[in-house]
Amino acid sequence: DAESQRLSNYDVELLNAQGSVVWSVHRDRYPISSEVFSVGGIAGRTVRVRLHDANVPLSLAEVEVYASAGA
């Protein structure tokens, strides 16, 4: 369906203050309900969700980012 096409074949990237990717993960499929990523204590400033298909609009209802305790 159209919703699954809007969030498939995408990367979630964590960028540092200089804009360099310090962690990333690729997903080929639409998440079932939600997805949680643990970056193993890597610090970053920006989270970017990037689609590989430029002809499909990115559609996200909500993105939540949390720091681990002590960070």
Attribute tags:
single chain; 71 residues; mainly beta; 3-stranded antiparallel β-sheet; 27% strand
Description:
The protein is built from one helix and three strands, in the order H-E-E-E. It is mainly beta and 71 residues long. A three-stranded antiparallel sheet has the order 2-1-3, with no helix packed on it. Strand 1 and strand 2 form a beta hairpin. The chain starts with a helix and ends in a 20-residue tail after the last strand.
Range of helix content: under 10%
Total helical elements: 1
Find the structural class using helix and strand composition: mainly beta
Unreliable spans are none
Distance between the termini: 39 Å
Shape: globular
What strand line-up does the widest sheet have? 2-1-3
- Cα-based radius of gyration, to the nearest Å: 13 Å
SSE run: HEEE
Q: Give the strand tally.
A: 3
Q: What profile does the largest beta sheet have? A: 3 strands, antiparallel
Averaged pLDDT? 83
Tell me the strand percentage band. 25-35%
Q: What is this structure's SSE topology?
A:
Layout (H helix, E strand, L loop, with lengths): L1 H5 L3 E6 L5 E7 L18 E6 L20
Antiparallel strand pairs: 1-2, 1-3
Provide a compact summary of the structure.
This protein has 71 residues and is mostly beta strands. Helices cover 7% and strands 27% of the residues.
